[in-house]
Amino acid sequence: MRQQSQSLKTSPSDEVVKQWQQARPDLDPRPMAVCGDIWRIGDLLKQGVLANLKPHKLDFPQFDVLMTLRRQPEAKHLSPSELAGEMMLSASAMTNRLDRLEARGFIQRVSDPSDRRSQKIALTKEGFDIIDSLVSSHLSTEEGMLAPLSQEEREQLRGLISKLLAGF
């Protein structure tokens, strides 16, 4: 497998760079290649994850809600605003997701015992079961997509991505 990854040093972006170098030799088009490759791999990774969710008729936003609730300590429920904060979303973006998950029986809104005016979001048994099953297949899917990279290369990639994110 290592030999195969050594021979895959070109990407579709390389041809784009060559074309831009000919069309505009006064510009350095290499940033286009880096960004294009990142967008491409992001799309491919997302497609892989969505294919894993499709048999369960879940979209990524719903999956994200279920995963966020599942990773909480046992018996900890989150308010919609806490859930939105964990997912880096606005509270208004949560309402539709929660409504759809509640309609499917995966979550329930329960009264907050410390403030009866507030609600907490909890996984139902069906929601817990589906996400507990899905997290295993999700990790297998991601592992398969990352198989060409060694653990050391994965850490290097994470470091580079973190460096880019810090620039924003």
Overview of the molecule:
With 168 residues, the protein is mainly alpha-helical. The chain has two domains: 56 residues; 86 residues, Arc Repressor Mutant, subunit A, CATH 1.10.10.10. It has eight helices and two strands; from the N terminus they run H-H-H-H-H-H-E-E-H-H. The chain has a two-stranded antiparallel ribbon with strand order 1-2. Helix 2 packs antiparallel against helix 3, helix 3 crosses helix 7 and helix 5 packs across helix 6. It is elongated and about 65 Å long.
Mean pLDDT, nearest integer? 90
Shape: elongated
List the uncertain runs: 1-7
Number of domains: 2
The CATH superfamily title of the largest domain? Winged helix-like DNA-binding domain superfamily/Winged helix DNA-binding domain
- What's the CATH topology name of the largest domain? Arc Repressor Mutant, subunit A
Could you give the count of β-strands? Answer: 2
What series of H and E elements makes up the topology? HHHHHHEEHH
Could you list some keywords that capture this structure?
168 residues; mainly alpha; Arc Repressor Mutant, subunit A; two-stranded antiparallel ribbon; 8 helices; 67% helix; disordered N terminus
